[in-house]
Amino acid sequence: MPSTSFVTAFAEMARTRPDAPALSWGDRVVDYADLAEMVESAHESLTAFGIGDGVPVCVPARKSPHTIALVIACVRAGMQVLLPSTGLGQAALADLCAQLGCTHVLSASEEEPATATRTENGGRTAYLAEPGLVLTTSGSTGTPKMVVLSAEGVDSFLSWAAAKFDIGPGTRVLNYAPLNFDLCLLDVWAALSVGACAELVEPERAVDGAHLAELCAERAPAVVQAVPMFFRLVVEAAAGRVFPEVRNLIFTGDAMPPNLLDRVAAAFPNARMWNVYGCTETNDSFLHEVVPAEVAVHGVVPIGMPIDGVHALVVADSGDVLTGAGTGELVVSTPFRSRGYFDRRLNGEKWHDGYFRTGDLVRRDEQGLVFLLGRNDHQVKVRGVRTNLQEVEQVVLAHPQVSEAAVIAVPDETAGNVLHAVIRRRAGSTVNSLQLRVHCAAGLPRTAIPGVIEIVDHALPRTSTGKVDRNSLRHNVSKAS
Fold it and tell me: Which terminus of the chain has fewer Cβ atoms in its 10 Å neighbourhood, N or C?
């Protein structure tokens, strides 16, 4: 997200490359001069509203060139900007604004460069109130936590991302993620800082495979970063069509199913494929160049090794730091890190001496390659045996006729939990629950084999970030039982 350094870099791009495309949005292309003019208009509106420099404001992340211009104008005015999801409930939004002390909720549109609604928070200034953004976690386990980005962390990341993925003047970068998601650091903000063009995918068309494939063909982006769902939608809609202009594919946000890789590689024949791992609190920390033949050996896509400048530890259940191969929680320190949670009471649980406890369980092999096993909070006990739901999902997804899978734990008085798998089979497949149970038995202990296997032919529900919506599935299962 923008920092004061970003604002300076963007202004230089607008001065030296005014006619170059900056944003593509539907049928409209916004060049750098147009975007700079939109920023100027938004800045004038902020001044007219009488919003003081340095105060926190809230800008709900409705993806559009106008919202992007408004965010840049706010940072230019020295403001700290809370950028929440547009899907956040009104009560939760009001709570976050009150915590941060946001004086106004701002928005922008084609008709108005900025509109403002005053809050009732009295203008209390947030701590560490440097210009920049405050993101929120997903809130999947409760009220979203606010993460305060640091200017130096943002600047370090923008520089790394542009260099690593060859993003420069004129490069087309596809932006699939919602505007409030930290993935936009790469595919929107890094792009705009170096004179590239961000191709914005409209949220209402994010699950339209035919539209996404057409974007890849017509816009010919050189860089595509997205969650695995995007790539599945594209290859299914492409029906053998290829996209030779793409040079870098970046998988992130969720585990890439190994049985999808060959089809992705065939659809993007000239692209290097990368798996990126990170979290909102630290940004990206691990990177691995994906080779399908290597993944076939491992059975899963590794998250790889730490990015240059990142320090990573694997901590066993005993609290000991492992020095070689082993399994434990991943703890990282990155040059891209945030300043932590706005609610500093939460930092003590997750941060220590600059290191962040990710809550992710990983396995490191003898060569130092790291594999994601799942999350601490995805572990349940089945008949007294600790079971990792994501490990079960990985085994299910390895079946060649499975397109999507989610495994949830349903409380059971006898077993503690019963595993319920919801599986979407590939188009035209006749695979049944018995065949899938046999497949699971070959790769899982008996207690980890799902007790219920539900097969569907429709897409599984997804969150706004493209991950399987397990809460929705859990609700549907509880209603059916």
Answer: C
pLDDT in tens, 292-334: 988 888 888 999 999 999 999 999 988 899 999 999 999 999 9
Whole-prediction pTM: 0.82
**DSSP string for residues in 437-456:** HHHHHHHS-GGGS-SEEEEE
Alpha carbon distance 475, 415 (integer Å): 20
Residue type, 252: T
| Distance (Å, whole) CA 387 – CA 473 | 19
- The pairing of strands 197-200 and 21-25 is parallel
- Residue 295's SS3 state is helix
Q: How far is CA 21 from the centre of its chain?
A: 25
Burial of 240 (0-12, 13-18, 19+ CB in 10 A): exposed
Q: Which residue has the tokens 């991950």?
A: 467
CA distance 327 to 357: 15
Helix (H), strand (E) counts: the chain: 15, 25
C-alpha–C-alpha distance, residues 428 and 442, integer Å = 24
SS3 state at 316: coil
Q: How far apart (Å, rounded) are the C-alpha atoms in residues 72 and 172?
A: 20
- For the stretch 201-253, pLDDT in tens is 999 999 899 999 999 999 999 999 998 889 999 999 998 999 999 999 999 97
Name the residue with tokens 């694997």: 314
